TrEMBL record:
Active site: residue positions: Y27
One Pfam family here: Aldo_ket_red
Matches recorded under SUPFAM superfamilies: NAD(P)-linked oxidoreductase
Protein species of origin: Paramicrosporidium saccamoebae
Site feature Lowers pKa of active site Tyr, where: K56
Name of the molecule in the record: Aldo/keto reductase subgroup domain-containing protein
Assigned protein family: Belongs to the aldo/keto reductase family.
Keywords: NADP, Oxidoreductase
Annotated ranges, domain NADP-dependent oxidoreductase: 9-255
Record GO terms (molecular function): oxidoreductase activity, acting on the CH-OH group of donors, NAD or NADP as acceptor
Residues binding substrate, per UniProt: H89
């Protein structure tokens, strides 16, 4: 989001009950997020301890020294003493071919930097994003602390069961991004292929977006719906008043089996 959109979204989100705000260095809006949160929280009497801020390490900052600097830069831009959750945004490094073994060396250094920042209180929790099964299993060979979170693309059309299963077995929290497939799961072409989605929506008298978000919530995953529309922000949060049946959950679970649709970049090729 741009600065202008941040100034619209954050007040609406706070008023709708949101308390987790997800940003990243690559989004180039940490300063806007930090300043707007500080201002709007003060207006509402909301304490810093009541808000959860996430940021992420960009690919060009992979490696121990660069990651150490990047953490301090994010703290300064957000104007906070600590960041609640800090993630390695991508398993690869910018400028490297995905097959280059230097990717592994750099992300090992990055993780060491995050563990050290955690130890001194600059970060309250650490994790990864877009890590596939091989990246997670590899971490068992070098991590003193396994990631607390793995943030991945996850929706009914893309459901990497191996990654989800591994994270659940290791008590790694799953956070789902692109829960609506960047809008593609709302398009007529997709819904015509999966007509039961609209029927589920009608049955519960909710929007299709709410159906997808509720599906993820019932799986026990964190969800990160993005919007700068106050109406949509409020709607996205309003998913606690209904529950999908086992049959409806099973139908939504099965969509990816019929046709997997990976919407965002695929990290599986990163060595």
């Amino acid at each position: 989001m741009t600065g202008e959109n941040v100034e619209i979204a954050i007040p609406a989100a706070l008023d709708a009950g949101y308390r987790l705000f997800d940003t990243a260095t690559i989004y180039r809006n940490e300063e806007f997020v930090g300043e707007t949160l500080r201002k709007e929280m003060a207006r509402r009497g909301i304490a810093r301890s009541s808000v959860f801020i996430t940021s992420k390490l960009q690919t060009k900052d992979q490696g121990y020294e660069a990651a150490t600097t990047a953490v301090n830069t994010s703290l300064a831009k957000l104007r906070v003493d600590y960041i609640d959750l800090y993630l390695i945004h991508w398993p690869g490094a910018s400028g490297l071919d995905p097959s280059d073994p230097l990717n592994k060396e750099l992300r090992i250094g990055s993780w060491r930097a995050l563990e050290e920042a955690l130890a001194v209180g600059k970060l309250r929790s650490i994790g990864v994003s877009n890590y596939m099964l091989k990246h997670l299993e590899e971490m068992e060979t070098y991590a003193n602390i396994m990631p607390m979170v793995n943030q991945i693309e996850l929706h009914p059309a893309y459901y990497p069961e191996d990654v989800v299963g591994y994270c659940q077995s290791k008590q790694i929290v799953i956070q789902a991004y692109s829960s609506l497939g960047r809008g593609k799961l709302l398009e007529d072409s997709f819904l015509n292929e999966h007509p039961q989605v609209a029927k589920i929506s009608e049955q519960h008298r909710v929007t299709i977006s709410q159906v997808y978000l509720r599906w993820a919530l019932q799986h026990g995953w964190g969800i990160l719906p993005k919007s700068n529309s106050p109406h949509r922000i409020k709607e996205n949060a309003n998913i606690l008043h209904f529950k999908l049946s086992d049959k409806e959950m099973h139908y939504l679970d099965s969509i990816h089996i019929k046709e997997t649709q990976k919407i965002c970049w695929d990290p599986v090729t990163v060595m």
